[in-house]
Amino acid sequence: MRLSDSKNPPFFGCYLIQTRQGVTFPSLTLSDSVKDWAEKWFYVPKPAPFSSDLSVTPSALPIWKDKLSAAETATLKPVLAQVKVLQQLSLTGNCIVASFLRRRVQPFMQRVHYGFEYTGPSDPSRLVADAELTEEMILERLERILGGVSVMPARVDEYDATHPPAVCGNLL
Description:
single chain, mainly alpha, 5 helices
């Protein structure tokens, strides 16, 4: 590592973390090893550039034509009915992203249990246990992630260990 200035820019970029006067730097526990990261995280190595060539027709996969079995359809109907009820209660994609931010879990990270079994601030699925974000911080992060979000989305009762979805027993 070396210091950089306008005459000696860094090879790989750099960043500086500085706290305001009178503010302590947050404590951070780092992992000793990252050897099992692939089992816990969804990763896209380097996606191919998007082709704007509209003359190329996408090829359908045979599995796309598979129909749901009667058992799958029967299991799915109550779930879709419950989703419709949640949409009527103002559930939107912004609400879902806000929920992930509020709960401090990553959408593609392996968890110890289902999201509807979330146990609260000390849940082992959280990246940062027992540290809550304010609504202002959540709104600021929603704006950074989604863009164009200027108001906090309506908060729908989130499923958790004390308030599970009615149909979860059929899915397990």
